[in-house]
Amino acid sequence: ELTPVCWLILLLRTLVYSSLGQGGASLSVNPDRSQFFEYESVSLSCEVQGNSSGWRVVRNPDRGNLSECNTDWGKQQGSSCNVLLIPSYSGVYWCESGSGEHSNAVNITVHAGAVILESPALPVTEGDSVTLRCRYQRTPSNPTADFYKDGYLIRTETTGEMTIPAVSKSDEGLYKCTNSEGESPESWMTVTGDRVEEE
User: Fold this and answer.
1) pLDDT for res 18
2) Neighbouring C-beta atoms of residue 23, cutoff 10 Å
C-alpha cells in the first residue's frame, strides 16, 4: 500500500512528466485503466512517430529507482512491454529515448485488496463520456457502490458503475469507490481540452 506521502510524490511526478515535451512518442496502456488487481496483466507500448528505435518503457517506483522493462520486470514484445503486476510495481511509467526525451506518464496502482476502481489511466477529453466502475475480486452479494471525488461522496450507484456523460475540467480529480467488499485505492483522472490530432 502506498502511503499518502508516496502517493502525492507519484502524482507530482506524473504531472511533471505529463507536462514535458512529448518528444514524438506517447505511452499507451492496454487495458486503459490506472488500477489493477495483483497478478493481472497490462501491456504498455511506446507509440512513436517515425523511428521507434531507442525508445524504452521505464518506471519509477516509490523508492525513486528508475528501471526499464525486460530487466527485473516485464517482457518486451516488439514495441510493447507486457507486465504481470504485483503491488511493488505500483508507480509512474513512461517512455524514454536514448537521448533523454520523455513521453507522457501514467500512474499505475496494483492492489492486493478486494476492490479496485476502473478509471482511465490516460487523460480524457472534455465532452467525452467516461464510466468509472467498482470492480471486485469476487462477485459481491450487493454490487451497490459509493463513489468519492477528492474525499467527498458524490454518488451511490446500485450497478457499481458511474457514468459521466460529458466530462468537463471540473470533473478532474481524485476518485475512489467503496462497497461492502472493501475500498479501492484512489486514482487521479485528468481531463484535457486538447483533442489529439490524428496523423
Assistant:
1) 44
2) 18
Residue 184, C-beta contacts closer than 8 angstroms, at least 6 positions apart: 35, 111, 113, 115, 116, 117, 134, 176, 177, 178
| CA gap 103, 196 in Å, rounded | 14
Tell me the per-residue pLDDT of 98-130, one tens digit each, with 9 for 90 and over. Answer: 787 889 999 999 999 999 999 999 999 999 999
| pLDDT average, residue stretch 36-46 | 95
pTM, rounded to two decimals: 0.82
Task: Flag whether pLDDT at 50 surpasses 70.
Answer: no
Contact residues for 156 (Cβ-Cβ < 8 A; gap 6+): 144, 145, 146, 147
Query: Does the CA dihedral 89-91-95-96 come out positive or negative?
Result: negative
From the list 123, 132, 116, 112, the residue with the least C-alpha distance to 186 is: 116
Q: Are 30 and 45 in contact (CB under 8 A)?
A: yes
For residues 50 and 153, the model is more confident at: 153
**From the CB of residue 65, how many other CB atoms can be counted at a distance below 10 Å?**
9
Cα separation of the two ends of the chain: 40
Sheet holding 161-164, edge to edge: 115-118, 130-136, 161-164
